[in-house]
Amino acid sequence: MDTNFNDSDFAAMAAEMENEAKQGTFQSMYWKPQNEGITNIRIITPLKQFGEKLFYQKHMIHYINGHSFLCLNQTLKDKNGNIHEAESCPICTKVKQLYSVAQKDSEEWKLAGQLRAKDRYVSRIIVRGKKNADGQIDETKPEFWEFGKKIHEYFFNQIKLGQAGNFLSLKDGRDYLLSKKGTGRNTDYSASCLSMSTSPIFSDAESLKKLLEYLPKMEYSQLVEFKSSANLKEELNLFLNGGDEQDDFQTGFNNNPVDDSLDAPYAQVAVPKKEETPSSNNYYIDTLLKMI
Fold it and tell me: CATH for 29-289?
């Protein structure tokens, strides 16, 4: 029996232990700014190929012990392509019971507010200054970004007022200056705003082409995974009765990153070659934009 444990074996073991640790760590599918300050992002227009009319998908979430669960009382297409029809939600039922007997500002009232379903919104974005694995700036791979009611109201008001124009335009839209102050529950994004100036999402056609090839892999439904009513009841009971949080606690979402192997319809489109178009780079970019 070979008992020699050399440096190569040690390195392989260290890598395996690191991989094991990552598998047991919650990995959110959503991008969020890591540091305080301003991060420029660009919200991507709705994708017509998915029949979208909005630049976001709305969903309702219950939070228990810092983990999120999709409320069962909503109709959404899930990651398997099935339509989940709205049904009775045990957490919503508990919230109604608490509100019906609790006095305002009592512990029961606060608990009901903690458990009630919250509106959340998901958009596709690009992050300005994003770096790839080699440390080079590469903004062409989009991210999913989840935001709350206040930011949604800001965008809605900008659209109603019309002062920011078509800020979603890939050709002459506006970046969103996401201002982060504080951490955790004390995080404040209230100073965020749209840029005063307009700009194309990318000034070169190659970057735009990469973005368009990736977007078809980002259907919102891949994020949606409903838990059963029985599972939600179990997690709710664990929380209310002081049960220990399980190490293999699962969230209400599909946490797998976007699969690069997914079919990409745009990637199959025969995009025009530069020599077949006028010399203007803007003409080439305009042609690519028509594919959205």
Answer: 3.90.198.10
